[in-house]
Structure formats: C-alpha cells, structure tokens
Design brief:
single chain, six-stranded mixed beta sheet, 5 helices
Length: 221
C-alpha cells in the first residue's frame, strides 16, 4: 500500500497539532516517527487510521481518499496501551486470537505467528498472567491475523526490558524484509540498530523533518 500525506494539518479545537505535513510512504518502507510527548506522533497515526477526521485531499491510501477508503484490514495496529490490558474473566491467548480476526484466520495461521514470535508455548495461558514482553508479542500476532500490508506500532517497547526490546526489533525487521510496511513510533533516540528507511521527526513547535537512512558507505541524505 502507498500512503500519500499531502499538506496534512490537524487541530484539537484551536490547538494545532500537525501543520502542513507532506510525505509519501511507499510499500515496504520502514518509517520511524520520533518526537517528544505532545509533538503529534499518535495524532498522526490516528489520522492515518481514520480515527481523526481530516479534510478531503490530505491523505490518500492507494490513490483512494481516506474519507472513502474502506479496506481497513490492510492495516495492523498495536497501541501503546497494551500494558494496561485486562480481562475480568479467564481468557487464554488462543481464545483471544480466535475471536479477534475479521477474516477468521485459521488455527494454523495464528499458531504459526505465535511460533514466529517465540511464544507458541503460552497459547493456552491466561492473558492476565503474561509478562509485558509476552503480552506485547501477543498483540503483534493479533495485529497480523488479517495479513495486513501496513503494521503500525505505537511506542511498542515502552513497558518491556532491553532483552525483549531487542527480540522485538529483530522480529519487526524480519516482517519488513517479508514486505510489510512498518510505521514505528518512538520518543527515544535509540534507533541506530534499526533497519529503517526513513525518520520523521516531529517537533513541539510544529516543525517536521524527514531523513532518509543512508546506504552503507554513502553520506546521509
């Protein structure tokens, strides 16, 4: 999927959060979005997912204006609030995944994804008993059930330890190599080991800069 952002602006009431942002995300890109809290990172994602309403002509998804776009299974989304996830009744990982897929992914599909994430052994565990790293990977599997073209991850390592973070980023790299477009939000500067293609820096002063990762041996563009 190609995502064209054309002079996007968005405000909450009289407070402008995004001002005149333009960028094209091509199929297979790995975009890292950086910025301090309040700079508009999550607001931008909500615009791309159709949660925040934007004016016609500001966002196009595969040449369709976002206001007429209806193929939302092409997106997989993992929010930054997975660590507060809680069910008051017993629910296993398998049950959560079984009833989460819009297209009713087969048991083989979600077992394969759990194995890819290194958590096949917790398929019958209660979701409320999982560690932050395990729950994070379960929600990535949940986001992947409909085989999305674009995977959006909002502060995915905010609540997990360094070891789980490193495993997570290796997994994301593999998904990107398989052709998934990745959009990753982070407020940290620790991205030197990520195989991203572009960085979008969002400032509290509404400025935005886009940097292309240089090919090894080339100067940064």
């Amino acid at each position: 999927m190609q995502i064209d952002i054309r002079n996007l602006s968005f405000a909450y009431g009289h407070k402008t959060i995004i001002n005149g942002l333009s960028h094209t995300i091509n199929p297979g890109d790995y975009l890292v979005i950086q910025g301090k809290n309040g700079s508009g990172k999550s607001t931008l994602i909500k615009c791309l997912l159709g949660i925040n309403s934007v004016k016609n002509g500001m966002i196009f998804l595969d040449d369709d204006d976002i206001n007429t776009f209806n193929k939302w299974t092409k997106f997989g989304y993992v929010s930054q609030n997975f660590d507060s996830f809680n069910y008051e009744f017993p629910l296993t990982v398998q049950e959560l995944l079984k009833f989460s897929s819009i297209t009713k992914a087969s048991e083989h599909n979600y077992l394969m994804l759990l194995d890819q994430m290194g958590i096949l052994d917790i398929v019958n565990d209660n979701v409320n008993s999982l560690s932050g790293g395990q729950l994070q990977r379960v929600f990535i599997v949940k986001a992947m059930l409909n085989d999305p073209e674009v995977l959006i991850l909002d502060e995915p390592t905010a609540s997990i330890d360094k070891q789980n973070s490193e495993f997570f980023y290796k997994t994301v790299d593999e998904l990107n190599k398989q052709g998934k477009t990745i959009i990753l939000i982070t407020h940290t500067d620790s991205i030197e080991n990520l195989n991203y293609t572009h960085i979008l820096n969002m400032g509290l002063d509404l400025t935005t800069t886009i940097t292309t990762k240089p090919i090894e041996g080339d100067e940064e563009s």
